[in-house]
Amino acid sequence: MGGKMAGGGDVLGDLMKFCLLSLAVLVSLLSVEAASPPNFVVILADDLGRGDYSAFGTPDIRTPHMDRLFKEGTAMDNFFANCPVCSPSRAALLTGRYPDRVGVPGVIRDRAENSWGNLADDAVLLPKLLQGAGYHSAIVGKWHLGLKSPDTPLDRGFDHFHGFLGDMMDDYWTHLRNGHNFMRRDREVIDPKGHATDLFTEWACDYLKQRAEPARQGQPFFLYLAYNAPHDPIQPPPEWLEKVRAREPGMSEVRSKLVALIEHLDAGIGQVLDTLDETGLTENTVVIFTSDNGGVLNYEANNGPYRSGKQHMYDGGLRVAFAARWPGQIEPGSHCAASALTMDIAATLCDIADVKTPETMNGVSLRGVLTGKEKSLPERDHYFIRREGGAAYFGLTIEALRRGDWKLVHDLPTQALELYHVSEDPLEEHEASKKAPKIFNEMRAALQAEIQRAGSVPWQ
């Protein structure tokens, strides 16, 4: 009997060892899964006004899906685009640098005589940096940083591209620009049918579903979803315009079209968020939502209470919406008062992915202030620049410099520099250079130094 008991004891002991070993393996696997870096989805609207979403308190617009990101994440109340126009802000987002320091002080266009930027050959973009942490990177939508090699998305580090290369579409349905087709799938020229917003939404959702497949689940991804809405031409699908007309009978036709285009965009964002939910990706995905610059006043965009709009160095052109959602890390419904820039997005994602950033990167990580572990960011100047052609600009630049409570503005090459105390005068109504000459001269010298730093970088 003793032998049987001894034998039984050995079996029991082996069983216990097996169970303990299995438990250890399970714990190890769970730990690896928990420690895996999060996925990133950056959603960029095009020319969205600071106040053109309903969570801002704007009563004539319905954007439940944009609002969802603000409710489930944090809002940065003082977030600024690096430039009041498209290409420079996109260059800043993807390089983490001031745009003129990577050769993109102005808009890159398909006509050389009206193109004011050329992405520097040595500029390292976010997808290239994230490769070091094993990320797969894709861009869906608007690229706007070059029309041919070596300045296409695949040349600059993205693994997948499904969208258009150009600055804008002359029509949301034909997708042409000056008669040219810039729509691509990777390097292939394509001619898809449908409204551009619907196409970009569909392609983004397809990409997310592919990344959720079992064979790919171990690899983190970065999806840069760059819509061209609500950039002009203002062409919402007819059924969306009819909904707005029926709901807001007193609204002008100009405003109705813009609101319909934005609400259609919002529905696309909702489909993307739903796809994250349906594929089980939501819990381990950081979602960032913002715009490349402020809205266009001629289309009756709502830039909140701030002065002016797109193209201008006043806050209506620079202040943009910003929401970040990271389940378990960012407090839902919270607000962050820190002042930040588009170029900080790259530094933030690198920080979260534990990727070392180049010394040349100008952006700073927002991880601490977004998660509430830090209350503020280091003091720094905010520098803005734009180069443009035409009778108003002559190929010259306009600039702004924000330092603490003060902002120096040069809004047209033919205009004098203006100084505003933005904490007391947030609407930039009272020019103060004569009241504060010492600050004016100090900031003028600082602005000149910033311009000089970028002077060695060619933009043609």
CATH-wise, what's the superfamily of the largest domain?
A: Alkaline Phosphatase, subunit A
Structural class, from secondary structure content? Answer: alpha/beta
Count of alpha/pi helices: 11
Q: Write down how many β-strands occur, each being a DSSP E stretch of 2 or more residues.
A: 16
In short:
32% of the residues lie in helices and 18% in strands. With 460 residues, it is α/β, with parallel strands linked by helices. The chain folds into two domains: 36-370, 3-Layer(aba) Sandwich (Alkaline Phosphatase, subunit A), CATH 3.40.720.10; 382-454, 2-Layer Sandwich (Arylsulfatase, C-terminal domain), CATH 3.30.1120.10.
What does this structure look like?
The chain has eleven helices and 16 strands. Helix 5 packs parallel to helix 7 and helix 6 packs across helix 7. The longest helix is centred in the first third of the chain and has 34 residues. With 460 residues, it is an alpha/beta fold. The strands form three sheets. Strands 8-7-4-3-9-1-10-11-2-12 form a ten-stranded mixed beta sheet, with helices on both faces. Strands 13-14-15-16 form a four-stranded antiparallel beta sheet, covered by helices on one side. It has a two-stranded antiparallel ribbon with strand order 5-6. Strand 14 and strand 15 form a beta hairpin. It is globular. 32% of the residues lie in helices and 18% in strands. It folds into two domains: 335 residues, Alkaline Phosphatase, subunit A (3-Layer(aba) Sandwich); 73 residues, Arylsulfatase, C-terminal domain (2-Layer Sandwich), CATH 3.30.1120.
